[in-house]
Predict the structure.
Amino acid sequence: MLLAMAARFLWPVLLGTGVVLGLACGARSELYIPDPERQVVSRGGGGEGGEDIIPPDCATLQSSSELAPLDMFVVVDASGSMGEALGGTITKWDRARTALSEFARDTRSTGMTMAMSFFPIRDTYIPEFCGGSDDCGQVGSCDFFSRCTTGEAFCTTNQDCIDAGFPGGSCQPMGFGRCSNHLTCQLEANSSPALELTALPSSAVVDDVFSKRAPFGGTPTRIAIRGALEAARQRQLAAPDNKIIVLLVTDGFPTEQCDDDAIFGNYDLVGNVASEAAMGAADGFQTFVVGIFGSDNADMAQQNFNTIAAAGGSGEAIIVNGALVDALNAVRLRAKPCELALSGDIADPENVWLRLISDDGSGDPIWVPRRDSEADCDENPGFYFDVPLGAGTPSRVTLCPDTCALLGGGAQRRVEIVTSCDE
C-alpha cells in the first residue's frame, strides 16, 4: 500500500526542462496503475455535452518543457484624435490608459513582459506650427491651414465649405500652418520604447508612462510598426526562446507622414503598413491590432485593420467602441504560446498524450488527448501534430484553442509529453 501511494504521488519523476526519460509500466515495474473507472477525469466543454477524458492505464514520460514566456511590444496611437471623447465624456486616450493599466495589473498577465511606445514622436528641433517654410527649415514643409471665408470651418477646397453649410464663400489660407517635418521618422527613435520591457503584473508603470505624454499630431502608423518590430528583433537576440508579439492600439487610419512609399506616390497607406506587418510575421513576430472606433467608422476600420492583422499573422483586428480591456485580454489569449517542439523521436505518435502541470503544485493535472488535425479541435481538451500521422515525422505539437485557454496568462505551467505503455 505504501509503495502504491508513493508511486502515485511521485510519478512521473521530472529531471528538468526538456529531459527525456522512460518509466517501466504495469506488472513489470509493480508501480501503481490508475483505475480509469475511479480516476478523476477531465471533462471538456464545461459540463453537459463535454467529453469524458479517460487517461491511459499507464504512460511513459517522453519529455517535459515549460511554455515559452510572452513578450508584448505595445504601440499606442498618441495622435491628436485620441484626445477626443468617444461615447460620452471620457477620451479615447484615457480609455486606453485605464485599460492598459488594468491589463498590466491583472494576475492573468503573470509571466509576461510588456514594453510600450507612443507615436507620433516629435522632432524636438522642428516646431509643430509655422508661419512659413523657414520656420520648418525645409522648403515647402509648412502646410498652411485654410478656412472658409463665410464661416468658421477648416477646409481644403471650396467644396469643403459648401459641405460644411457655408456656400458662397471660398477656402482661403490663414497665414499659418503646421510643419510637415515636425515628426521624427528615424528608426532608432521609433524603436526605443517609452516603457522598457517590464515583468507583469505591475501596478503603476502604465499610468506613469502615460502621464509623460499627451495626444498630438497625425498617425504615422508605418514607422511605428517598423520601430516596434525592430525592437522585437533586438529582443529575440537576447531571448531566442520567447514568443514576441507587437500590439497596435489606434483610433485612426494611417497618415502619410514617415511612409517611404507615399513620398513616391503610393498612397495605399493601409497596404504599406500591412507590408511591414508581413515582414515581421516572416521573422516570427505576430502583429495584433485593436482599434477604438465609434459605430460610424467601425465597419471601415474592421475592413482596413483586418488587412494589417492578417498580414501580421494574427487573423482579424479587434474593433471596439468602449470595452478596450476585453480586447486586450482577447489578444493575450490569442497570442499565448501554445506550440511546443517534440524532444527526440516519438516511437508511437498515435498513442501520445499531453499533461498540463502547474509548477506551483496548484490544481489537478489536465490530460489532453491527440486530435487528428486543427479541424478536429472543439470545446474538449486536445492537441494535434504539425504533420498528419503517416505523412511524415511530427516535430511539434499545438494545443487546440480551448485547451490553450486552460493555461492561464503566464509561464508557470509546463507540458508533459507522454505515451501509452506497451501492451
User: Anything to note?
Assistant: Residues 70-122+184-335 form a domain with the Rossmann fold fold (CATH 3.40.50.410). The longest helix spans residues 221-238.
